[in-house]
Amino acid sequence: MEHRTLILAVGMLAIGGCTTSATNSFPAPGSYDPLSTTQPIDPGRVAVAREIDKIDREIDGGRDSGALSKREGRNLHRANAALAGAADRMGADGLTADEQRGLQMQAGIINGQVQAAKTTGGPNKPE
Length: 127
Known about the structure:
The protein is mainly α.
C-alpha cells in the first residue's frame, strides 16, 4: 500500500511540475515588451534601409506616372531587392562604416539608374 502511495505522490509531483512550468513559459497578458528582447538599433542599418525604401517609392512613383515601363520597374525592383538582401546579411552583426558606405554607394547607383530611366521616358518613349 505504501508503495502505491509513493508512486501516486511522485506521479502527482511530476504532473504538477509540468503544468507549472508550462504556465510560466508565457508572459502575463499585457506584460510583453518587444523592445526588451531585441538587439540595439544600428543607425547605419537604419540609414541604408531608408535609402532602399526611398528607391522603392521612386520606382513605384515612376511606374504610376508612366515614366518607367513595367519591365524597367521590375528590373530596378530586383536590383533594389538584391541590395536589401545584401544589407540584411551584412547588417546581421552590425554594419561597419565601410560596409555602410558601400551599401549607400550601391543605393546611389540604383537611384541614379531610376532617375535616368525616368528621364529617358517610359513605355511610350521613341525607339
